[in-house]
């Protein structure tokens, strides 16, 4: 481990975006003994009771660039040792530039805070489909990326270095529980992407990896987080449809092989010790709710 590594002992942790990943992460951290307090933000007042029942200090914190952020709420929320940012851009509602502006606002609030360590949840969607293995140095600037705004957001948070220790985690497609790949393609005909390898990570492993990084030491680095095995889309879609009795999609050979990417998780596996609960997307745990 480098000199930038810091160990966690009963630290206060704030999770900005305590949603589909952030909420189970918060519960996992509370049950681990490595934190004395977990705060979680939400934009839904209805979730505050759920947070309280789980032992999470809930904060209603909308991120609206037009109205700005309430300084009093921000100061209280970011009064922590570690900040986890788990807010994906809303692609269906996002106005160009809105997400990176949000993250610039967040970065400013963290810069003023006493927090020393930050984990930013990004996406392997930043890599272009170049029909090759994607490693972390491949994308460092927005113009190199399939998702320029996500990289701009990464860089806004990374600019907190060296005053803060910032880890960027680029997560592959988050699945598990009610996020079932076959659900989104059931019954489709003549799909041409069946031979493309998948890049997925189960939610349990995503949360487990974030916890492991906190325990073993946050670093000023960027890591791809992906399940070690990469079966084809057709294998994953057909298998997950079969589990729930859905009509499987059908596939045909395309005239030209579609471009793809294969995400490498080697940098993470060489830096941290972690045993995947679900290394193979064909063995992911799902629950049809």
From TrEMBL:
<dbReference type="InterPro" id="IPR036291">
    <property type="entry name" value="NAD(P)-bd_dom_sf"/>
</dbReference>
<protein>
    <submittedName>
        <fullName>Nucleoside-diphosphate-sugar epimerase</fullName>
    </submittedName>
</protein>
<dbReference type="GO" id="GO:0005737">
    <property type="term" value="C:cytoplasm"/>
</dbReference>
<feature type="domain" description="Pyrroline-5-carboxylate reductase catalytic N-terminal">
    <location>
        <begin position="12"/>
        <end position="99"/>
    </location>
</feature>
<dbReference type="InterPro" id="IPR028939">
    <property type="entry name" value="P5C_Rdtase_cat_N"/>
</dbReference>
<dbReference type="GO" id="GO:0004029">
    <property type="term" value="F:aldehyde dehydrogenase (NAD+) activity"/>
</dbReference>
<dbReference type="InterPro" id="IPR051783">
    <property type="entry name" value="NAD(P)-dependent_oxidoreduct"/>
</dbReference>
<dbReference type="Pfam" id="PF03807">
    <property type="entry name" value="F420_oxidored"/>
</dbReference>
């Amino acid at each position: 481990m480098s000199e930038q590594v810091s160990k966690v002992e009963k630290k206060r942790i704030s999770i900005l975006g305590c949603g589909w990943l952030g909420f189970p992460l918060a519960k996992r951290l509370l049950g681990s003994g490595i934190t004395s307090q977990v705060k979680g933000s939400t934009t839904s007042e209805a979730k505050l009771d759920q947070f309280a029942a789980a032992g999470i200090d809930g904060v209603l914190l909308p991120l609206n660039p037009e109205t700005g952020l309430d300084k009093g709420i921000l100061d209280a929320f970011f009064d922590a040792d570690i900040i986890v940012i788990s807010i994906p851009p809303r692609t269906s509602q996002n106005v160009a530039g809105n997400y990176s502006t949000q993250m610039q606002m967040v970065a400013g609030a963290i810069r003023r805070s006493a927090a020393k360590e930050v984990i930013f949840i990004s996406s392997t969607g930043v890599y272009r489909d170049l029909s090759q293995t994607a490693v972390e140095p491949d994308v460092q600037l927005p113009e190199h990326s399939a998702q320029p705004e996500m990289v701009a957001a990464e860089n806004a948070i990374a600019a907190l270095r060296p005053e803060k220790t910032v880890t960027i985690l680029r997560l592959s497609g988050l699945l598990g529980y009610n996020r079932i790949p076959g659900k989104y393609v059931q019954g489709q005909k003549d799909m041409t992407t069946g031979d493309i390898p998948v890049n997925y990570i189960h939610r349990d492993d995503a949360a487990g990896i974030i916890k492991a990084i906190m325990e073993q030491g946050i670093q000023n680095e960027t890591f791809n987080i992906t399940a070690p095995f990469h079966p084809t889309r057709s294998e994953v879609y057909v298998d997950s449809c079969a589990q729930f009795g859905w009509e499987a999609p059908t596939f045909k050979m395309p005239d030209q092989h579609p471009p793809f990417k294969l995400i490498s998780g080697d940098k993470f596996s060489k830096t941290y010790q972690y045993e995947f609960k679900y290394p193979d997307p064909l063995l992911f745990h799902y629950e049809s709710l």
